[in-house]
Amino acid sequence: MRTANRRVFRLLPEAGSISVEQGGAAGDVLFNDQSAIQATIDYAEALGAREIRFESAYYRIDCPERTSPALDTRAVDGHPLVVRESLTLRGCAADRSVLDFRGLGGVDPDGNWQTVPTSATDAAPAVWRGGGLYLDGDTSRPEPAARRIARLELDRLVFRGNRQRTSQTAYPADPVTGDGWDISDKGFWLHDVYVGTVICRDTDFIGWRGEIFYAVGADDAIEQLSLTRCKLLTGNGNGLNLGCNPRVDAVDCEFGDCKIAQEDKGKS
Q1: Phi, psi of 105, deg, nearest 5
Q2: I need a labelling partner for 167 at 20 to 30 A (CA). Which of 6, 36, 133, 141 fits?
Q3: CA separation for the pair 220, 33 (Å, rounded)
Q4: Tens digits of residue pLDDT in 63-114
Q5: What is the rounded distance in angstroms from the CA atom of residue 154 to the CA atom of residue 133?
Q6: CB contact at 8 A, 215 and 222
Q7: What CA–CA distance (Å, rounded) separates 172 from 170?
Q8: Burial class (CB in 10 A: 0-12, 13-18, 19+), 77
Q9: If we measure between CA atoms, which residue out of 54, 128, 144 comes closest to residue 94?
């Protein structure tokens, strides 16, 4: 912030923590908080803050516009929330903080979606709903250096996708009807990057047209995954989809109401 006498003040974390409200989020059904939350994430990463607090009970998050091809897995446009560094995202409401994901402009994502080219060489239209949380980690193994996302914690959050499950599980989703397994719509999305430890506590991902929790890449794409009191529910794709081989601890969790509750094809 720059004052009238041109002095510059910078928000500093308190005990390593800043809130999305400090970044401009309203926590109100009437306002789209996507840009404020993403700006808070970007600022925390640039500043080296360890934690982002969600102090309200509810946040509306509209999917931003996607212009890149649907199959460009490294493009970050059109993803509602993107994390690039080690962080904790913590809900601090009396119950849990709900992140309510909608379509472009706040529309119902079940019946509305964007269409973009399938790939750089295929102009055929493809459905884009955008999913929820996208991890933009290291694209090559950084050892001996630490991974940029060495530790990601999600605590007391509900990632509400607002997508209903249908009987159509063919993929990709039909660009005319939007029905099917929408591979652009993953609740948790890690694709061919390297991260360290991922910890989810009291955190749910509910209502997505694609995979609910998706982590695919090299065997050590994730070093360790810990899920405690988490629900991965309701989707046209698979629930816990690990195409990598981390150590997995899941305690008091529920996966289901989707095509396959747990897909283990990539694990040894």
Answers
A1: 80, 10
A2: 133
A3: 34
A4: 999 999 999 999 999 999 999 999 999 999 999 999 999 999 999 999 999 9
A5: 11
A6: yes
A7: 6
A8: middle
A9: 54
